[in-house]
Design a protein that fits this description.
Blueprint lengths: L10 H17 L8 H51 L4 E5 L10 E5 L5 H7 L7 H10 L3 E4 L9 E10 L6 E15 L4 E5 L10 E4 L8 E2 L16 E3 L6 E9 L2 E13 L2 E7 L6 E3 L8 E7 L5 E5 L15
Parallel strand pairs: 6-14, 7-10
Antiparallel strand pairs: 1-4, 2-3, 2-6, 4-10, 5-9, 5-11, 7-8, 11-12, 11-13, 14-15
Length: 326
Amino acid sequence: MSTNSSMPPDPPAQEERKVISTLADHYFPDSRGLPKKKRRKLIAILTVSALLLFFGSLLAENYFGLLFSGNSVRREDEAQKRLDLEGEAFTAQVTEPVFDPTVTPFDFIFDHPLTPAQEKRMQGFSTNEIDELWDYLSSIGGRMVEYPAGGTSEARSSVFNLHLQSDRQAPLTVTDLRVEILHCAPSTAEAIVRVPPQGGGGYFGIFFDLTERDPIARISEPTKEFGDPFFRDNVINLGNGEDPGNFRVESVAERQSCDWEIEVSYADSSGVHTRNVNNNGHPFRTEALPRNPRQYWLTYPGEGEGIEWVNCSRPFGPVRPHADCG
């Protein structure tokens, strides 16, 4: 369909021109007497100026919005970091290891002598009933002490699992574990039941020798590095999505039983800190063998499935003292 240029403009176009003309009359009242051509030029300039002002204000608004939003994001990020550092640096959980008395040698110490009935019942177990012997000795008040991976024949140890975890978003590095001794004293136990080891072996993890003046974490793996300071060549990284640090911790005591805690040194973005870890609100305790117990039983595999029980008590029982009685 053909168009006719002589037709009057559409109503919207007429309305738009009226608005622009009105604005021109308002802001430039002297333009009313101008020739039509100059008046249109002035209106065009006014329109372009208005558009430039409009888009310029949009650009300015976006610029300052981005500027201040960047500052706001930085402030929020700094606030989040402060909250992250104010939270607990890490949690420490202590659990008992899985113990198999059929393969792990152990001693039991008692704060009281065993009665004749208890001694008779104890000697009734066979080599196939080590689990039952362990349960029985526990049920009559015995406390187990283990044979350490290293140390003298009279040294004994306790073992637990230590789990360190941090929920922080920022990284955290454990740089040292040391023992803080709270109290040590000779063992007052009155009876010992010994089940000596039939072979050697070490724990994979760390150990503390409580006989040292300043016990530090040492490597307990049965390798050439056994006994070397663990943190000489290692650190524990926590936080920032790192896996928890899990350790089998052994503590070795000799002649004196000790109560103690672990002093953890760690570093984060705010500096170097220390914090003590204990056994769920209580000190760790590592017991030594008593030097002069009233009762001292030593066991050896006997004939068949039997167990040979040697009475090392002083004065010695009806059997001749065994060479290992000491």
